[in-house]
Each structure stands twice: as C-alpha cells, then as structure tokens.
Design brief:
This protein folds into two domains: 2-21 and 236-424, Enolpyruvate transferase domain (UDP-n-acetylglucosamine1-carboxyvinyl-transferase, Chain), CATH 3.65.10.10; 24-233, UDP-n-acetylglucosamine1-carboxyvinyl-transferase, Chain. The protein contains 14 helices and 24 strands. It has helices spanning 24-33, 50-61, 88-91, 101-108, 127-135, 169-179, 195-206, 238-251, 266-275, 312-320, 338-345, 377-389, 400-405, 409-415; strands spanning 2-8, 14-19, 40-44, 65-66, 74-77, 85-86, 110-114, 139-143, 146-150, 161-163, 185-189, 210-212, 218-222, 230-233, 253-258, 278-281, 285-290, 299-300, 325-329, 350-353, 356-360, 371-373, 392-397, 420-424. A four-stranded mixed sheet has the order 22-23-1-24, with helices on one face. The protein has a four-stranded mixed sheet with strand order 2-15-17-16. It has a four-stranded mixed sheet with strand order 4-5-3-14, covered by helices on one side. Helix 10 (312-320) links the parallel strand 18 and strand 19. The longest helix has 14 residues, at 238-251. The chain binds uridine-diphosphate-N-acetylglucosamine (UD1) and phosphoenolpyruvate (PEP). Phosphoenolpyruvate (PEP) is lined by residues 25, 95-96, 310, 377-378, 405. One of its GO terms (molecular function) is UDP-N-acetylglucosamine 1-carboxyvinyltransferase activity.
C-alpha cells in the first residue's frame, strides 16, 4: 500500500502554476453514458484517476471497446454483444458504478448491478434511483446482493413524472440517462443541478437527446429511439481546483490554476475571499495570493450552487490554523467528519457537536507531523494540506482514497514548493 511522506514546515509558501484536470464526478457518468449508443464516443479532458481506471475496467468487462487513456483522451464504443451485469468486485471499489444501471436498462431493457455497500461517509442508499426506474415501468428486485432491473414488455422504459425525496446527484444522472431513451416524456423534479450533471446533460444533447431545463431543478426529457456518437470535453474539476486553493490559503503564497472554470465555483471562491485570499479570475484561470494568517469561516454544506460537501474537509484544514473560531456544518452526509480526529492528531483543536464541527484555530507552529490515516477521498486531501504545514514528517496512509479523485496530487504540489514523497508502506517494502 502506498503512503505520502510529507516534510512539513509552518513557513512553507506555495508558488507557481497548477494545471487542473477534468472533473471525476462528470467523467464517471459521461463514460457510463457511452453505453447509450453503439457509435464511438470520443472523450477529452478525462483525468487519470483510479476511479476512471475502474470505470474503464467495468465497461470492458461489459464488452465495451475502450481505448487506452492517452493524455486525456479516450474513445469508447459499446457495439456488439454487451453484458448487462456489473459485478460486485468492481462496484465495491467504486460506488459510482451504479451509474451503468440507467443506460443498460434504457438501451438493453435489463441490468444487473451489485448493490453498493455502505462507505466511510455514510450509508448512501440508492432508493431514489430505484424509485425512479420503477416509475418508468421497470420491475426491480434485489437478488443475491444485486439490483435486477427489467424494463416493461417490449423492452422500453416509459416516460414518467418523478420527484425525488431529496436532491441526489448520481440519482438524477442515472434517471436522466434512462429517460433519454424512454418512450415519451419524463419530468425530473427536484433534480440536482451540479455542474457535473449539467455537463452530462450537454453531452447527452450532443448525442441527440432532447432535454430542457438543463442547469435547473426541473429537467424535462423527450425520449428518443436512438442516440448517436459524439465528441465531448469534460468540464474542469472544481473540487480539485478548490483543494489547491485551500492549500494556498493555508500555506500562503501565490499560485495560478489553469484549465479551470471559475464560473462554477462561486460559493467556494466567496469563502476563500472571506478567508483573506486575494483572487484574480480569468476565463480559464484563477490566481490566488495569500499573505498572513487565514481568517476563520463558518460554512454549511448544501446542494449546488451552495457550498459543496466535497470541499468541507479542505476548508476545515484551513480553519484549523485560522486566526479564530469557526463552525462547519455538514448537511449532506451523516458521517463526513472522519478527518477531524486525524487533524487533531496533528495538533488541531476541533470538537464535533452533532453535524457541526467547532474549530478553535491554532498557530501553524503549534502543529506537528504524525502518521495519519486517510479514510475517504477529501479527508485525505485535507490531511495533505495540514501535513505540509505541520513541523516534521506527516505520513498519510491509505492514499488509494486520494488516488481515486486526484491526479498525482503530490506531483502537482511539489511543482509549487511542497516536499512530498510517495512511498510503499514499511510492511510491504
Ligand atoms: C460520483 C459522484 O458524483 N459523487 C458525488 C455525488 O455523490 P452521490 O450522488 O452518491 O450523492 P447524492 O447526491 O446522491 O447524495 C445526497 C444525499 O442523498 C442521500 N440519498 C441519495 C440517493 C438515494 O437514492 N437515497 C438517498 O438517501 C445520500 O445518502 C446523501 O445523504 O454527490 C455528492 C453530493 O454532492 C458528492 O459528495 C459526491 O462526490
Ligand atoms: C464522495 C466523493 O466521491 P464518490 O461519490 O465517488 O465517493 C467525492 O468525490 O468527494
């Protein structure tokens, strides 16, 4: 198992350019959407991530032809015999595998997808996906740990009016991918409008889908009989970008992010400004200058365009060394404070009360390096941020979580001044 060994320094400053990759959370549904046509689909700005590899493996296991990922381009073609079964072995390593359910069911009339288990940040049920497919006429049964979905007589889903109980990102994406090939009109109320959902919707439109209300909480879809191939460039990763901005907010310095889209990052950029980061926004660039100690910020996670839960841990890392107290409330997931204990091991002062974490900011010099355990993707990133500042060596263990969503994060950070080494854990070396 690999670890990151970070040589921390309270006086570290990050300086230079960082190129941001395509969004994991857009690339995953988009790759699954290639199942909706037998034509080739060319994707660009696809990030090199563990979850992308898993998706490529999953598609190949289904019989889809998937080229190698060259730089950031991949060509996918779901032509010929396609299996409709996504096995537990792959689904257990990536919950987003559930996103093959909608396209398989819509195009082939049947799908078997292993039920994803619980995970570090909460139970994360998929009942809303199932409820939506049922409304479209699918028969759903749970057999041997698998969701078995079958379209009505004739093999085609029927358009329906669906209101999900809560806003769900992958739920909206799954139902949207099913609706584009259904018979008739589907109305998705309470739909997620995260930029990654919008990117998927735009890609589907470029394949011939008929979708109105893109970017809103109400999607109206007129099902078509067939979709065709397309070329699509994945939207920039606003969470990767936000993570590097938090890094500079914590360390100080002057960095410039390239290949970003600031227009989809307003809530995060506003909070960084409140912390004292000076931002200069270009069309596809963000320059961030930070001098002095960060001001603490209160925040509460919520759906887009509100503050994203996927940025909560990274902001808490900055709050940990900010010049005062702050409260961070998590409203999306029931158990997304696993980083708190590890941050406290580095010297932070954070106490959890229900779904709020109260932080008393400490001086950067009060932190000291330690062995910490990454428990989920963004928790890992937040520990890397604090590890760069904590005097001495911080070892971040279990970085396979980090590699799920960050393209060689340590290389990008080293380019701007961090001292980080990727090593094999002692037991294995
Ligand atoms: C691959 C991907 O895009 N992952 C993102 C996606 O996850 P994901 O799509 O899994 O998250 P959801 O938006 O579905 O979850 C929101 C809330 O709804 C609940 N829920 C969801 C579906 C359902 O059928 N039943 C149910 O109860 C979840 O447990 C959670 O409490 O959106 C999250 C919220 O922005 C992000 O943190 C994840 O990074
Ligand atoms: C929680 C996340 O991803 P996933 O839904 O793939 O677990 C994330 O990207 O922070």
């Amino acid at each position: 198992m690999e670890q990151l060994k970070i040589t921390g320094n309270p006086d570290i400053r990050l300086n230079g350019d960082i190129r941001i990759g395509g969004a994991k959370n857009a690339a995953l549904p988009i790759m699954c959407a290639t199942l909706l046509t037998h034509d080739p689909v060319q994707l660009r700005n696809v990030p090199t991530l563990r979850d992308i590899n898993t998706t490529m493996k999953l598609l190949r296991e289904l019989g889809v032809s998937v080229s190698e990922l060259e730089h950031d381009k991949v060509t996918v073609q779901a032509y010929g015999t396609i299996s409709t079964k996504a096995t537990y072995e792959l689904v257990k390593t990536m919950r987003a595998s559930i996103l093959v359910l909608g396209p398989l069911l819509a195009r082939f009339g049947e799908a078997w997808v292993s039920l994803p288990g619980g995970c570090a940040i909460g139970a994360r049920p998929v009942d809303q996906h199932i409820k939506g497919f049922q409304a479209m006429g699918a028969q759903i049964t749970i057999e041997h740990g698998y969701i078995h979905a079958k379209a009505p007589e004739g093999g085609r889903l029927k358009g329906a009016s669906i209101t999900t109980d809560m806003i769900t990102v992958t739920g909206t994406e799954n139902l949207l991918m099913a609706a584009v090939l259904a018979d008739g009109e589907t109305v998705l109320e309470n739909a997620a409008c995260e930029p990654e959902v919008t990117d998927l919707a735009k890609m589907l439109v470029s394949m011939g889908a008929k979708i109105e209300g893109i970017g809103t909480h109400r999607l109206v879809i007129q099902g078509v009989e067939q979709l065709h191939g397309t070329t699509h460039s994945v939207v920039p990763d606003r969470i990767e970008a936000g993570t590097f901005l938090c890094a500079v907010a914590a360390t100080g310095g002057d960095i410039r992010l390239t290949h970003v889209d600031p227009s989809i990052m307003t809530s995060v950029l506003d909070k960084l400004t409140e912390m004292g980061v000076e931002l200069e926004l270009g069309e596809n660039t963000i320059r961030a200058k930070m001098t002095g100690r960060a001001k603490p910020v209160n925040l509460s996670t919520t759906e887009y365009p509100g503050f994203p839960t996927d940025m909560q841990a990274q902001f808490m890392a900055v709050n940990a060394i900010a010049s005062g107290a702050s409260d961070v409330t998590e409203t999306i997931f029931e158990n997304r404070f696993m980083h708190v204990q590890e941050m406290n091991r580095l010297g932070a002062n954070i106490v959890i009360h229900g779904n709020t974490a109260h932080t008393e900011g400490v001086e950067a010099a009060a932190l000291s390096g330690a062995v910490v355990m990454a428990t989920d993707l963004r928790a890992s990133a937040s520990l890397v941020i604090l590890g760069m500042i904590a005097e001495g060596t911080t070892t971040v263990d279990r970085i396979y979580h980090l590699d799920r969503g960050y393209e060689r994060m340590e290389e990008k950070l080293m380019k701007v001044g961090a001292v980080i080494e990727r090593v094999r854990s002692a037991e294995e070396a």
